[in-house]
Amino acid sequence: MLKELFLGGKKELEVVDKMKKHMGFLCSACTTLKTAIENRDKELISSVSDLEREGDIVRREIFSNIYEGAFLPFLRPNICRFVEIVDNALDVTKDAAIEYTDLELDEETKDDCARIADISAKMCEMLLAAIETLSGRADLREKSLAIRIYEKKVDEIEFDLLKRLRTKEIKNFWEGKALSDFIHDLTSTSDLIEDASDYLQIINISLR
Question: Pick from 30, 57, 55: which is nearest to 44 by CA?
Answer without folding.
Answer: 30
